Amino acid sequence: MCMVIFAPVLATFAFATCGGYSGQLRVRVDCADKSQTNITISFGYPFRFEQVHFKVPLCELKRQETVFLEGDFSTPAQFFVTIAVFAFLYSLLATVVYIFYQNKYRENNRGPLLDFLVTVIFSSLWLVSSCAWAKALSGVKETVDSAQVLFLMSACREPINDCEALEKPVWTRLNTSVVFGFLNVSLWAGNIWFAYKETGLHKTSQRSTRTLSEKQSSFSQRQYSQSSFDQSAASLGQQLYRQVSFDHSGGGITLPHSSLGQPSLFNSSSRGPLILINDM
Fold it and tell me: Cβ of 22: how many Cβ atoms within 10 Å?
């Protein structure tokens, strides 16, 4: 339920704070001849600074030069916004399915399994895009830093001229976009376990483990029974061996008595041994 509620909201904040950003830098150029020029440099998403240019006066020659900023950070910015938009759309679709198509969702376990795979993919994409955008944001700040921009102007490199920044960009929205990016990472990564439980795969693995342990226990019991039987047979053999007595003087062999009947005496000849045999 937390996924259904927070995923669309966090995705919306992520692409809105990044994709809707626009900022500006205002600088003033005071030439040695007392002429003054204010310059406004505007930029925004997708942060292709190579296309941002502005006019700067050349104080000595009374002319102007065109200055271009340096750097292109459109790829990580657009990647971040694209992941946020697709995550928002999938979250809305998943919400509709959870609420109105619960039976179809659980049919043949395909819905939970697909949701689990998509959750893992979006978790990875959110992590990659958030890290890439956080690094790109550092480059954006360096590109439009006032000291860096003033260095690009020829008039400001002359010590007789005075240049200063009147207004600097506000980075609150872009910093917030990075925060929302990593919040989405935590949300989607935390939902992996719940999506996995919906698939029922953990129950199957538990049943397999239980069956294997039962088989091992049964096999151990059979081995123990067989060992007990062998020990009993060996003990009986030893007892029988001890009970057998040889009558060397009479030339006969006396077998142990049993409950099957009284022993009978046979003497085949005067020279042969006496044999006691139980009647069945």
Answer: 10
Q: Which residues of 223-236 are buried (b: 16+ CB within 10 A; e: fewer)?
A: eeeeeeeeeeeeee
pLDDT single digits (tens) 60-99: 767 889 999 999 999 999 999 999 999 999 999 988 888 8
Whether the bond into 159 is cis, omega within 30 of 0: no
- Do 130 and 184 meet the contact criterion of CB atoms below 8 Å apart? yes
Torsion of CA 42, 44, 46, 51, to 10 degrees: 0
Beta strands in the chain (DSSP E): 22-30, 36-44, 53-58, 63-68, 162-167, 245-247, 252-254, 263-266, 275-278
Helix intervals (H) in 144-248:
146-152, 172-199, 201-243
Contacts of residue 90, defined as CB under 8 A and 6 or more positions apart, other chains included, come to 118, 122
How far apart are the C-alpha atoms of 167 and 26, rounded to whole Å? 5
CA distance readout (Å), 29 to 10, 61, 249:
43, 15, 139
Whether pTM > 0.90 for this model: the answer is no
Radius of gyration of the chain (CA): 45
Q: In angstroms, rounded to a whole number, what is the distance separating the alpha carbons of residues 248 and 167?
A: 127
